[in-house]
Amino acid sequence: MGLDASDGEVAVSQRPELAQFQCNGALGAAKRAGQNPRELAEAVIEALEDTSQFSDLSIAGPGFINISLTDEALAERIEGLRQADHVEVTPADPAVKMIIDYGGTNVAKAPHIGHLRPAVIGESLKRIMLALGHDVTGDVHLGDWGAPMGQLIAELELRQPDLPYFDENYAGPYPEESPVVMADFDEMYPAAAARVKDDPEFAEKASQAVVALHAGRPGYRALWQHFRDISVDALKEVFDDLGVEFDLWYGESTIHDRLAPLIGRMLEDGVARESEGAIVVDVEEPDDNKEYPPLIMAKSDGATLYSSWDVATIEDRVERFDAKAMLYVVDVRQSLHFEQVFRAARKAGIVGEDVVLEHPGNGTINGPDGKPLKTRAGGTPPLRGVMDEAIAKAAERLEENDLASEYDEGERAQIAELVGLAALKYGELQNHRAGDYLFDLDRFVSFEGRTGPYLLYSAVRMKSIIRKAADEGLEAGTIRPATNEYDRNLMLELLRLPEVLLRAAEHRAPNHVALYAYELAAQFSRFFEHCHILSETDPVRQASWLGLVELCLRELTFLLDLLVLEVPERM
Ligand code: ARG
């Protein structure tokens, strides 16, 4: 009809009592063409050649088109989904090589509650993008090159000056074994930081140490490698338990050799300039409505820093991975930093217009006072402690609800772990990433309401129905047209998955998936309450319902996996 294809977009109806779907495109199209919207909507309906799938095609209000499917058409589509051996999604077009930078942890520091957000959101986003067919690499981008490295080296020298790492005449080889273990950092790190504040001489030593480390002093590099290795091992333990898996354990240090040539080139090209001894890139643009200070590539003492490392890392990701998209799941408070970095990278010609650079930032996790969550003592809660607390609370809830009680202790502990971590992760992912949220572990571990435990329980219940049916010799069969509003609504809900996934990817926001998983589980629960599968006397209807349960379990398991949640076999 000469209208825009986007005018034909159909969405789930806002008023399900009137129709299943609606199309609002006639309004805009009519306005543009100076036509009457109701008449245009009428013409659209008339132009449809095959309307056999629809039970309703009608005009509502000023020109909305209401659309409902016949139960036959709906069942046919659902049967198609059931027959497929995988969950159907609408693949990304085009699929691209993408790097997701998330987790944001640092060497020599145990991860704390603040790392939960970028780690879990990033992991979920990675899984969503992979499901859509993108070629995704996740990088932890470890903080391993900054001032604290110099502080720790200086601190250790103070404590153990006789170690070979500090002897400039020592020719190696250095010991295989690290002189410190991860737990030592808990005390050493704050001690060094405090000393820097109080003792100017030590502060000078620490900053010289980091310069020497960057310059390649062998003893410092060897020591730093120990720090890095033991940190990575410790971080991996925590992240493994959370289900967060990085493809790359690169860090700020990875691109060190790129810095000098890059800065040289930027100066030559006039992209960077000297300013009071430092090297900076002007990043403001004519349309800015706030201030963008110049990005610093090197300080006046020649030292490079966080901002320059991120610019060089972009170069690395383009050259080594041919990345067409880089997403940074990092605290929103770093948004100015990333905007400066992205602008500098574009200005320097490191990335072309075809490369997406984005900072889908995360907000903070707050305590009841509305400020970032603290322990009673006023510190930031370590992530491991929070995980343990969630698991302990989950064990209590399981007991209260008389779940998993007849299984042996080992299995009960396993289930509590899955439930506790699901509580934590779903408590996280159900919120939009950019906002702050209130950390309420008691609510998160509840089996009622929109929680991780509820979702795991729903999936386990589906598994148990399927098991019971099998025990009774019942098998799933062809999906038949709906027999009541409950099985019909469940079928309609199942249809939404591809659209939800695309929306989550588009907004870099896993909460769309989190909410949909809950809606699907809730719709299933209503279906299960009203459609008594195991006692149903019509075998065709019974087999069809069982087919729905199987499909529902497949979709829910898929969604939960995207949310980094793992379902136990039973509860
Ligand atoms: N380690 C940094 C921090 O603690 C976050 C790193 C985020 N990624 C990046 N490419 N800058 O703030």
Would you write up a description of this structure?
- By secondary structure, the protein is α/β, with parallel strands linked by helices.
- Among the domains are: 5-69, Gyrase A, domain 2, CATH 3.30.1360; 147-242, no CATH class; 251-320 and 331-362, no CATH class.
- The protein has 19 helices and 13 strands.
- Strands 1-2-4-3 form a 4-stranded antiparallel beta sheet. A 4-stranded parallel beta sheet has the order 6-5-10-11, with helices on both faces.
- A hairpin with a 3-residue loop joins β3 (54-60) and β4 (64-69).
- The protein is globular, with a radius of gyration of 28 Å.
- The relative contact order is 0.10.
- The model has no long low-confidence stretch (mean pLDDT 96).
- It binds arginine.
- Arginine is lined by residues 101, 104, 106, 141, 143, 310, 328, 330.
Write the layout of secondary structure elements.
Layout: E1 10-12, E2 21-23, H1 25-33, H2 37-47, E3 54-60, E4 64-69, H3 71-83, E5 97-102, H4 116-131, E6 135-139, H5 147-159, H6 182-198, H7 200-215, H8 218-242, H9 256-268, E7 272-275, E8 278-281, E9 295-298, H10 306-321, E10 325-329, H11 335-347, E11 356-358, E12 365-366, H12 383-400, H13 409-429, E13 437-438, H14 441-444, H15 452-471, H16 485-495, H17 497-506, H18 511-530, H19 539-562
Parallel strand pairs: 5-6, 5-10, 10-11, 12-13
Antiparallel strand pairs: 1-2, 2-4, 3-4, 7-8, 8-9
Bound molecules: arginine.
